[in-house]
Design goal:
The complex is a heterotrimer of chains A (about 350), B (about 500) and C (about 325). With about 350 residues, chain A is an all-alpha fold. Chain A contains 14 helices and 2 strands, in the order βαααααααααααααβα. A two-stranded antiparallel ribbon of chain A has the order 1-2. By secondary structure, chain B is an alpha/beta fold. The longest helix of chain B is centred in the middle third of the chain and has 16 residues. Chain B is globular and about 65 Å long. Chain C has one domain: ABC transporter involved in vitamin B12 uptake, BtuC (Orthogonal Bundle), CATH 1.10.3470. Chain C has 13 helices and no strands. The termini of chain C are far apart. The chains are: A mainly alpha (about 350), B alpha/beta (about 500), C mainly alpha (about 325). Chains A and C meet through α5, α6, α11 and α13 of A and α4, α11 and α13 of C.
């Protein structure tokens, strides 16, 4: 009987898994393109327009980088918690909480510029951590699924910011959009660029720091062990609940800091209004899902997704609706999920092994 | 032996099966005559479970065929095998714990009425149990039952589906001596009623007691089929293991300092029932104290308490004079207590992590590997390399995940790792369970080396032969209590067996 | 007099709450079915959106006259999406969490995209409220409960009763519960785990679609982007709160609706508390449902820690774990 069989492998080579994830995402994109064709759109034209939007115009690359910053921050947050097999779907909420706290400090405190920036950063980081505190405790000590708890807090954060924008921090002078007052202090610009600030440094430094943590520190090792098998980690003497809470708080803090640097580092974003957080958490999540455990992959993927995101925004003016991006995101995620699973299987010829053994 | 009808009730010809590239069965023939108890004998990993899973429709063979009453059948699902009259009782029960006995009996069964209440199902169950002569409380939830009772539910389930052929996979592994005798009675009754039984085991003595014919498997290949009458233990053992090497162990009476002292420890299990009752034990440096007893009498909980994974209600644990009662796992490790856990996969390793990572899992905090916040990966790699060499762990590379390794190699890794952790005390819980002979011997040697180096070893095993082989002293546990302690010279197999079964002495059995 | 006033306020609260939470009830019942066999589908938001947009398409583009048919169209669309999800997750055994999130995101994107030109177009063919007439109109209490459209009664009474009967009084239900608790045991007993999981996933998805369709066919008779507005996630939480039992799930959904209704009433009647003016209060109240839902999930978990382990409130044992027979 000559046939091929799919055999489930017992281990999962991380490099192979990454390859399959990316392949899955790409296949999904191709599928998405096919769907676009079927519904009467021209994917090649769209792709061309997208590339033109990024590379063909003056501020294209800067636009991508600007979007990449918050996406990378939330992606880092999610990726860190994913190392422990914890799903932080609430990075959007933590991001907003960070921005909220930063605005609060920014418009109510008066101090020299750099002090303000430090204060806002501290506030943002702290707020992000606070926003994930309850889900973290519930998950670590009571085993409550973090997906729903972190996610519900997203909605609370949105309402909180809307309340601030329309209520207690309302900018009385603004007539077009309802928003909070603007903060006055922004991050210093990177010389030579039109709109980039040192905000760009934050995700890169944090990515590097996390890479180092997982390579050369005890904490990184412990996090990986908890993610692999919490019971074995406990057996190894690791205080699992305490670690889980600690790491989740850092996760929230990163996302919160992301909110602050977006507030203070993106031109035009110095106030909270309905246009503030355009689903960066979502994009960040997708980046983290594709990247798996690799921080380098995360940075690269972050810029790619930011490119997709940015061109989607630009193409809105040319008739493409933003929702297609969402639909594409969905397809990509499925592709990644299927790819991840496909990596576990290997095509094996059914006959040869039995024959080989008989001859020995 | 009962004379059957024309052909065998069940026959397998040339069965081969492999998993993930590793061959589990290679061209195995097997036949079952109606009305007999046919034992399938072999070491752990010989392929017995795989063969029976093929017969029961759970696995599809890569090659070969299965014949029921002479006609070839292909079972694509378990229900097809069930329909053909083959019922398997697995080693790991396929019961749904949060449901009742009656519900489990009626699961996936066409005869179950489409509309039913729990009470109606219980009544039906009772009627059936009366017919067969096996009783269990039909309204009890599975998690409330003892292991022996759960097994009875499994057997009833299989009989209810009209099984004429029963396959029992290591049924006595979790039974007390009393329950084993009861099981054998049930099997005899069933066989006299015209059914046939395949009895899978690695326990030679039981096989000789209960079977009519014996088939020996070794490493996926059939060695022999013969009538039970006239077979001897040494002959079968030789066939099973292929070699008659045995380690030589000299036992001694040890006088040294007490390294591990357990006083009046009382603790509960996961279901909040008392699992350990006022346990008193002590182990001296350079001594092996073996804990004999059927699994489920508190040994697991005892090991967990000693590892810092379970709290005690009262009592104390001292290691080298230091009070470690209810100390967290980290402190226990720091005091030089090694632990080979019973649950190798669930607790002992991180399957998705590399060999290197697992090699230092328990003592990565030590100075050799950690300074401040950092982890010296170079030192970790060096240690892992040494461990893999000394421990003869066969692995593709240090980066390979532990999940790739065979059970024997995983246990070699764990055993040597724990040996590095165990400065003073080693707790070895079922260390050779499921291992092939070579790996088992290596693990035992490792423990003996530790002992000779002055370590105090607490060996927990449900394999009485292993206990008697390795221990300088033997303690017997039954229902959470220590019911007897012997020096190895006085350790009498029968006496211990009686205590393991919960009886005080031989006379009370009559 | 005062008693009458309070009474009225409470009743009107309930009256508004009932249809407001029907979407959640339908979706949550669907989630419950799927989770009972061990499938966790996080894509409810997407499914609601798909169900809603296709109901709109049916009612406006295709000119379907009957709301029942429009709803059916929505259900079929959502069921199709659910079927794709089920195949990916059960047959290919992909990660259920990732795939569910993909469905949520993709579904929202897809439905918003399809609805892009239909924003605000009113739908005329709606579910009519039942009017029992006569004696029923005079009594405020009865008015609260008896004047709803037929879907309400289906969702709140018929379906939970049917599911309760199915799960707890039939052989089929028992087999399904076993699939959720221990798929290996169910498989060994001869229950087809694959078809059970796919079937119930699709059924659950179609209920979510029904929820979405209901929304556009009654109180919000038009399309709007992001029409689910978080109700899919609430449904997931409500099932946990309801311990996977039909009537408790409905109660949880009703609680959620009551909070929404409270918020709406507060806004409409310009209530205020000492520190919070009417606008502030409405924002505060808009956060309450989510916060209360979180607390509602924490309660059973906390109780389990402090009391005996109560088996009937824990999740199906095999939830979100892909099952494969040949696992060694």
């Amino acid at each position: 009987m000559r046939s091929f069989r799919l055999e489930r492998q017992l281990d999962l080579d991380p490099r192979r898994a990454a390859l399959y994830r990316v392949a899955g995402a790409l296949c999904a994109l191709v599928l998405g393109a096919l769907v676009l064709v079927v519904t009467g759109r021209n994917p090649a034209w769209i792709l061309w327009q997208a590339l033109d939007a990024i590379f063909g115009r003056q501020r294209g690359i800067e636009g991508v980088v600007l979007r990449a910053i918050p996406i990378l921050m939330t992606a880092l947050a999610v990726a860190l918690s994913l190392r422990m097999r914890i799903w932080n779907i609430g990075s959007d909420g933590q991001f907003l909480a960070g921005a909220f706290a930063a605005v609060g400090v920014g418009i109510n405190l008066d101090a020299p510029g750099w002090v303000m920036l430090l204060a806002m950063a501290a506030a943002g980081t702290l707020a992000g951590a606070v926003w994930i505190l309850i889900p973290a405790l519930a998950r670590a000590y009571w085993g409550v699924n973090e997906i729903i708890t972190t996610l519900l807090l997203n909605f609370v954060a949105v309402q909180l910011c809307a309340w601030a924008a329309l209520g207690f921090w309302r900018d009385e002078g603004a007539w077009a959009i309802q928003s909070t007052e603007a903060i006055k202090d922004t991050l210093p610009k990177i010389p030579g660029t039109e709109s980039l600030t040192i905000a760009l440094l934050f995700p890169l430094v944090i990515a590097g720091a996390l890479w180092w943590v997982f390579r050369s520190t005890r904490a990184g090792y412990e996090i990986d062990m908890i993610g692999g098998n919490p019971k074995a980690a406990a057996f190894a003497g690791i205080n699992v609940p305490r670690r889980v809470v600690a790491v989740m708080l850092v996760t929230g803090a990163i996302a919160g800091l992301g909110g602050m640097i977006h507030l203070a580092g993106s031109p035009g974003a110095q106030q909270l209004n309905s246009g503030f957080s355009a689903q960066y958490g979502l994009s960040g999540f997708i980046v983290a899902a594709i990247a798996g455990g690799s921080f380098l992959g995360l940075v690269v993927g972050g810029f790619l997704i930011a490119g997709m995101f940015f061109s989607g925004l630009v193409l809105q003016t040319r008739g493409l609706s933003v929702y297609i991006i969402l639909a594409l995101y969905g397809i990509i995620l499925i592709g990644v999920a299927v790819g991840e699973m496909a990596a576990r299987y290997r095509l094996v010829r059914a006959e040869s092994e039995v024959a080989a053994r008989r001859s020995t | 032996m009962t004379e059957g009808s024309a052909g065998p009730a069940l026959e397998a010809r040339g069965i081969s099966k492999s998993f993930g590239g590793i061959s589990a069965l290679d061209g195995v023939d097997f036949d079952l005559i109606q009305g007999e108890v046919h034992a399938l004998l072999g070491e752990n990993g010989a392929g017995k479970t795989t063969l029976s899973n093929v017969l029961a429709g759970l696995y599809r063979a890569d090659a070969g065929e299965v014949l029921v009453d002479g006609s070839p059948r292909e079972f694509r699902t378990p229900s097809q095998a069930i329909a053909a009259g083959i019922g398997m009782v697995h080693q790991h029960f396929r019961l749904v714990e949060p449901m009742t006995v009656a519900e489990n009996l009626h699961l996936g069964w066409e005869d179950t009425p489409k509309v039913c209440t729990r009470r109606a199902l219980a009544a039906r169950a009772r009627r059936f149990m009366d017919e067969i002569g096996l009783q269990v409380d039909p309204t009890a939830y599975i998690w409330q039952l003892s292991v022996g009772e759960q097994q009875r539910v499994e057997i009833l389930r299989v009989l209810a589906r009209g099984a004429r052929i029963l396959i029992l996979d290591e049924p006595t592994a979790v039974l007390t001596a009393q329950e084993t005798t009861e099981l054998f009675d049930v099997l005899r009754r069933l066989v006299n009623g015209g059914r046939s039984v395949v009895f899978i085991s690695h326990k030679l003595k039981e096989v000789l007691d209960v079977s009519d014919r014996i088939t020996v498997l070794r490493r996926g290949v059939k060695e022999l089929t013969r009538p039970t009458e006239g077979a001897t233990i040494p002959e079968l053992a030789l066939l099973m293991t292929g070699e008659s090497d045995e380690i030589n162990v000299t036992h001694r009476k040890v006088d040294g300092k007490i390294a591990l002292e357990i006083s009046k420890v009382t603790a509960r299990n996961d279901r909040d029932l008392i699992a350990l009752r006022e346990v008193d034990l002590s182990v001296r440096e350079g001594e092996i104290l073996g804990i004999a007893g059927v699994s489920g009498n508190g040994q697991t909980e005892l090991a967990e308490v000693l590892a810092g994974m379970r709290m005690t209600d009262h009592g104390s644990v001292h290691v080298a004079g230091q009070d470690l009662t209810n100390a967290p796992a980290r402190v226990v490790i720091d005091h030089g207590v090694g632990h080979i856990p019973e649950d190798r996969i669930g607790m002992g390793m991180v399957l998705s992590a590399s060999v290197e990572d697992n090699a230092v899992l328990r003592h990565y905090r030590r100075e050799d590997f950690s300074t401040g916040f950092g982890l010296d990966r170079g030192a970790v790699t060096a240690f892992a390399e040494r461990l893999v060499n000394v421990g003869r762990v066969q692995t593709r590379s240090l980066d390979a995940t532990v999940g790739e390794l065979s059970g024997g190699n995983q246990q070699r890794l764990i055993a040597h790792r724990e040996a590095a952790v165990a400065d003073r005390v080693m707790i070895a819980s079922q260390p050779t369970r499921g291992l092939d002979v070579l790996a088992a011997q290596e693990v035992q040697s490792t423990l003996l080396d530790l002992r000779d180096g002055g370590c105090a070893i607490l060996l927990i095993s449900d394999d009485l032969d292993e206990i008697l082989l390795m221990s300088d002293r033997v303690a017997v546990m039954y229902e959470g209590k220590v019911v007897g302690v012997f020096d190895s010279a006085d350790a009498d197999r029968d006496k211990i067996g009686i205590l393991m079964g919960g009886h005080q002495d031989a006379d009370s059995l009559r | 007099m005062i008693f009458g006033m309070v009474d009225n306020a409470l009743l009107s609260l309930v009256k508004v709450a009932i249809p407001a939470s029907t979407v959640v009830v339908l979706c949550a019942l669907g989630v419950m079915l799927a989770e009972r066999v061990g499938v966790l589908n996080l894509g409810q938001e997407g499914l609601i959106g798909i169900g809603a947009v296709y109901a709109v398409i049916a009612a406006t583009d295709w000119g379907v006259g009957s709301p029942w048919i429009s709803m059916l169209v929505g259900m079929v669309a959502a069921a199709t999406a659910g079927a794709i999800f089920a195949v990916v997750v059960v047959v290919f055994r992909a990660n259920q969490i990732l795939t569910g999130l993909a469905l949520a995101i993709g579904g929202i994107g897809l439905s918003n995209q399809l609805g892009v030109n239909r924003n605000g177009t009113p739908i005329r063919t709606l579910f009519a409220e039942i009017n029992p007439g006569g004696r029923f109109t005079s009594n405020a209490f009865l008015e609260t409960f008896f004047f709803h459209d037929p879907i309400v009664y289906i969702a709140y009474i018929l379906l939970p009763a049917a599911f309760w009967f199915l799960l707890f009084r039939t052989r089929h239900g028992m087999n399904m519960k076993a699939v959720g608790e221990n798929p290996a045991s169910a498989d060994a007993a001869g229950v087809n785990v694959t078809w059970a999981r796919i079937g119930y996933s699709v059924a659950g998805a179609s209920l979510a679609g029904a929820g979405g369709a209901y929304m556009v066919l009654t109180f919000t008779p038009m399309w709007a982007p992001d029409i689910a507005r978080g109700r899919g996630w609430i449904a997931l939480a409500v099932v946990i709160f309801g311990a996977w039992r039909p009537f408790r799930v409905v109660a949880g959904a009703l609680l959620y609706g009551a909070m929404i209704s409270l918020g709406m009433t507060a806004q409409a009647r310009n209530w205020n508390l000492p520190f919070l003016g009417p606008r502030d209060l409405s924002f505060f109240l808009s956060m309450i449902p989510y916060l209360v839902t979180i607390v509602a999930i924490l309660i059973p978990a906390g109780a389990a820690r402090f009391g005996r382990r109560v088996r009937s409130t824990s999740a199906p044992g095999g939830l979100a774990v892909p099952y494969s027979r040949e696992e060694r």
